[in-house]
Amino acid sequence: MSSFSQSFSRRSLLRLGLGASAVAGSAALLSACGSGSSSQQSGSQGGSLNGSKSSANPNGYSDDGQNYSGLVEYTHYEGAVNYEQGTVDHPPRNAPKPKVTDALSANTVTGFHEAIAYFAAAMDYLVKTGSTDAFSTGIQLSSKTRSEVDALSASILAGVEKGSWYVNPSASYALSSAQPSIMSDGNLLFKGKYTLDFGAEAVAEGKIQPVVASASASASAEPTEPSEDALVSDAASPTASASATATAAGPASRVTVQECDFRGRYHADSKMWELSVAYGATVQGATAQGSAAQGGVSSASAAASGSASAPSSAAASAEASVEASATSAAS
Fold first, then answer.
1. Helices 109-129, 143-161: crossing angle, 10 deg rounding
2. Is 175 within 8 Å of 70 (Cβ atoms)?
3. Which residue from 94, 168, 283, 290 has the highest number of Cβ atoms inside 10 Å of its Cβ?
4. Separation CA 219–CA 196 (nearest Å)
5. 3-state secondary structure (DSSP) of residue 287
6. How far apart are CA 266 and CA 114, in angstroms?
7. 41-75 per-position pLDDT tens digit
8. Do the beta carbons of residue 283 and residue 192 sit within 8 Å?
9. What values do phi and psi take at 119, rounded to 5?
10. pLDDT at 300 over 90
């Protein structure tokens, strides 16, 4: 499973007409998730939530009687929520920042769900602000999940520095079952879906521009499997990020949905949950693994999965495409 989605890349911003500055900075917002099959990364099924400690359920987890399926919601936030969408003068600000509660420290199914809800709120805060502050307390992240979060933050902030941002992006999660599973290692697992909504508008070149879904995409794009840290490495290289020829099309969709797994391990010493979040196939929006079309969108896009691995020999033509896109955006 790769660190970030094959479904989008910096080329998507070129298709938006947002120009070179947006490509250089904000495009990781398009792919906060990994690709592949999340279920294959989860391990085998363990014991049942019967409350009895055993080798299959070493922590004695029990069903807490709640139905957690559906949208994950967090209800505890710092201070007054006075959220402002982005404008041509500033990116989104005063986004709701999740507040740590005692419920996060419970080594129970309830505590695990609370940790996931906190993560979901922190991810929405990150997508809106570029800040990882909410991830510095309350929960722990696996090293891989943390590196993905940091790479996404760096790219969003780089875009903001260059004057490019989405006006009202959002991130959310939904769970697929009422209760989690116990894995063979004793950890808990919730399967679900991740939704990223770019919003209707973006700012680039000092102007508000629509985020428009395209009816087609580059038929020449070939899907590839980026390495585990492909986007992490690519984030620091704006030239490499534009290494495939841009088209005039928009992104495949304003909204993308991907499968995901939340795997939770409780640390008794710190009384905190460590979350490892693995992302899977794109099921809505961009072409799922570059195959069947979604919502009438052509599957030919393969949506720029090769942004980090395209041949360097394409750099010259890519730079020309970036310049053309920037010129078009400014006109």
1. 20
2. yes
3. 290
4. 24
5. coil
6. 13
7. 445 566 689 888 888 899 999 999 999 999 999 99
8. no
9. -60, -45
10. no
Entry pTM:
0.72
For the chain, the helix, strand and coil percentages under 3-state DSSP, each to the nearest 5: 30, 20, 50
| Spatial CB neighbours of 169, under 8 Å, sequence gap ≥ 6 | 29, 92, 127, 128, 196, 197, 198, 199
| DSSP secondary structure letters along 162-176 | TT-EESS-EEEEEES
Q: What value, to the nearest 5°, has the Cα angle with vertex 315 and ends 220 and 215? A: 30
Q: Is the pLDDT of residue 304 over 70?
A: no
Distance separating alpha carbons of residues 101 and 268, to the nearest angstrom: 17
Question: Which two three-digit tokens encode residue 204?
Answer: 């680039």
Q: 84 to each of 30, 103, 188, 318, how far by Cα in Å?
A: 21, 29, 36, 35
- Residue 218: its pLDDT value, please? 37
pLDDT digits (tens, 9 = 90+) for 94-131: 999 999 999 999 999 999 999 999 999 999 999 999 99
Closest CA to 294 of 219, 214, 221: 214
CA distances from 144 to 15, 29, 64, 185 (A): 29, 17, 30, 19
Q: Are β-strands 188-197 and 170-175 bridged in parallel, bridged antiparallel, or unpaired?
A: antiparallel
Q: What Rg value do the Cα atoms of the chain yield, rounded? A: 20
Q: What percent of the chain is modeled with pLDDT above 70?
A: 60
